[in-house]
Task: structure prediction
Amino acid sequence: MAILNVTYSGRSADVPWDVDDKLSDAEVKRVAAEAMRERAMRRALHTDTAQPGLFANFVVDRIHGPDGVLRLYLRPKVPFGC
Result:
């Protein structure tokens, strides 16, 4: 299992449930879109947006924390860095 963190509009929040650590990038985006349909997630990110294709141009980073737990970070692409 993994923790999914979504960054949107300069804010980030964890999806309120654990996700499968074997998800493809497309599946991660689908799960994040599902989470955005929930009011609690939109409130955490301070947005009312939950439109289809919201995360089409986002990337997924997979990083193991010091405790060994995999964290999936869904974030916008940036024009610099990795």
Remarks:
- The chain has one domain: 2-76.
- The chain has a mean pLDDT of 87.
- The first strand starts at residue 2 and ends at 8.
- The helical segments are 25-37, 39-44.
